[in-house]
Fold this sequence. Notes:
Number of strands: 12
CATH topology: TIM Barrel
Structural class: alpha/beta
Order of helices and strands: EEEEEHHEHEHEHHEHEHHEE
Strand order of the largest sheet: 5-1-2-6-7-8-9-10-11-12
Helix content: 25-40%
CATH superfamily: Aldolase class I
Distance between the termini: 35 Å
Number of domains: 1
Strand content: 15-25%
Shape: globular
Bound molecules: iron/sulfur cluster
Oligomer: single chain
Low-confidence stretches: 263-276
Amino acid sequence: MHTDTEHQRAVVFDIQRGAMTDGPGLRTTIFLKGCPLRCPWCHNPESQRRTPQTVRTVRGEEKTYGRIMTVDEVLCIVERDRAYYEASGGGLTISGGEPMYSFPFTLELARRTQGAGISVALDTSGFGSRNQWATLRPHLDLVLFDYKVTDPEQHREWTGHPRQPILDNLGYLLDEGVSVLLRCPIIPGYNDHEAHFDAIRELARHPGVLQVELMPYHETGCYKYDELHMPYALSDIRAPSAAEIDAWNNKLKDLPFARTIIHKQTRMQDNSEKKI
Ligand code: SF4
């Protein structure tokens, strides 16, 4: 029996079984509520506040984002698809929000999942202290690491968080031999410029970066800003066309392991994944 402590509980706002775009194989992705960043393009604004939030939908129904779950409850769900993980090379992906913001729970879940013989990936903005990363690292098989903004001032202005500690964490993980999948949200008018793609290419040179994923801006989660009574700063921005996405892909055509993820569908530019 495990005690019901902070290590054992977190607020979960979604669980997706059979996920195909959160790391290799078929995965169960658990989304933890709470994130210290404030990216204006965030398509999961309900993930930002750590506590559950009850809203009224456009149809007038009451809906609550987030519920408290224990590690045991999550593990029980993760275990259900063990056969699929084994057949496909998949496993658990812990996502958010920012899972490092719920560090004690994330550590416990990763430790116990890996102990049960299931592969663990972490989907992160790179937030977190060096001590936290050093403690968690042995329990991770893969890190899906966001790379958002290249200019330090713009990074701080847009995300509300300095860029350098995030880059330092990425460097630390790579130096420690952790496998990294670099995830790059591309937002028209924000980071769809040459210097940013150059920086992505530079980061991808490290042998520990197994794959680069471009994640073009989409408008799927915009309605949630209304529900949550949050202002949406990107209401004038439209999702890029297929031609624009192709142009972005071409900027990375020298990376044979780059691909583009379009929301829940996978649009393969070149899926010759490097090592995963
Ligand atoms: S890091 Fe992710 S969850 Fe947090 S605000 Fe940015 S996009 Fe949203």
